[in-house]
Amino acid sequence: MKTLVILAHPNMEHSRVNKRWRQELLLNPDEVTVHELYQEYPDWNIDVSKEQKLLETHQCIILQFPLYWYSYPPLLKKWLDDVLTRGWAYGSMGNALHGKKFGIAISIGNKKENYSQNGSITFTVDEIIAPFKATTIYIGATALPHFSFFGASFQVTDEEIEQSAKDYMDYIRKYNFLSMIESKPEIFRKL
Fold first, then answer.
1. Quick one: pLDDT band at residue 55, thresholds 50, 70, 90?
2. Which helix (H) or strand (E) segment is 170 a member of?
3. Are 164 and 64 in contact (CB under 8 A)?
4. What pLDDT, on a 0 to 100 scale, did the predictor assign at position 181?
5. φ and ψ at 9, to 5 degrees?
6. β-bridge pairing 147-149 and 142-143
7. E strand or H helix at 173, and its extent?
8. Distance CA 82, CA 86 (A)
9. Residues 116-174: pLDDT tens digits?
10. Residue 104 in contact with residue 65, Cβ under 8 Å?
11. DSSP 8-state code for residue 119
């Protein structure tokens, strides 16, 4: 079972963190399907049916993006608006995503200590990503804890970024494994 990573970075070539995360993901094709929105839809014309089929074939989905003005990059927001349709993702007949696991992997420009009630942002990351969690609950999925890297706009070392890429794959493996156990409990009971 693979994890689907919906990657939404509008300027990947100038990214250090998301670019390195993508490289790590691509080294693990048996575990991860990488789907890059800005590469797939440079014209912003999203193939809703294709995207819905892709989501249906994965149990664990991670949205990977840089935090933009305390939210998603614009194409990811459009993707959510277009793809999560009534009658498919929500509403009385919309149950295509029920029971799936949704997580986010975010690179954050500012420092971790600023994401607290006493910090300069005055909000925690959990508070900032509340709309993601609410959406996940609304579509009948489970919100996973977020994976984040702080200080991307500062002088972070290559070693810190390298470690974050390894930690990111560990995060994906953990939740992919838990999804496998939940989707095929009969197999794991025999072990």
1. very high
2. helix 158-183
3. no
4. 57
5. -130, 115
6. unpaired
7. helix 158-183
8. 10
9. 999 999 999 999 999 999 999 999 999 999 999 998 888 889 999 999 999 999 999 99
10. yes
11. S
User: What is the arithmetic mean of pLDDT over 87-111?
Assistant: 95
**By three-state DSSP, how is residue 50 classified?**
helix
Question: How far is the C-alpha of 121 from the C-alpha of 134, rounded, in Å?
Answer: 21
Identity (one letter) of the amino acid at 16?
A: R
Q: CA 78 → CA 37, 39, 41, 71, 171, distances in Å?
A: 10, 15, 11, 12, 26
Question: What phi and psi, each to the nearest 5 degrees, are found at residue 4?
Answer: -95, 125
Phi, psi of 107 (to 5 degrees): -95, 135
Residue 186 has pLDDT above 60, yes or no: no
Residue type, 32: V
Checking if the pLDDT of 188 tops 50, the result is no
Q: Which residues pair with 57 in a beta bridge?
A: none
Domains of the chain with bracketed CATH: 3-189 (3.40.50.360)
Whether the Cβ atoms of residue 8 and residue 71 lie closer than 8 Å to each other: no
Q: For position 187, what pLDDT does the model report?
A: 47
